[in-house]
TrEMBL record:
Belongs to the GASA family. PANTHER family: EXTENSIN, PROLINE-RICH PROTEIN, GIBBERELLIN-REGULATED PROTEIN 6. The keyword Signal applies. Keywords: Signal. This is Gibberellin-regulated family protein.
Amino acid sequence: MVAMAKLLLVLAVAILTISMVESKLKETNNDEEQHQLERVNGQGGQKNGQGSLKSSQCPEQCLRRCSQTRYKKPCLFFCLKCCRACLCVPSGYYGNKGECPCYNNWKTKRGGPRCP
């Protein structure tokens, strides 16, 4: 009985520790993304007015942008993230990223495009 209580206590501490580490990692990733976006926008995280969309228009525009891909779920996830940050979604289903410099210049840690 005592052994079972100790095992449950160790398990609870392990779960709490893992939860705290995950939370810290998410916070770190969000900070890195914010700093990268600030560099892309060039205005310390402020919207630089380049996008004419309202954030409420992002879902519609991203549905259009991602309508032709086989990978709809990840396309929509990243498109919405980029649209909310840049307030812009390029025309068409692919390419045309030059229309939205923020959308085009926001890169992953590896240097690849973040926005579809």
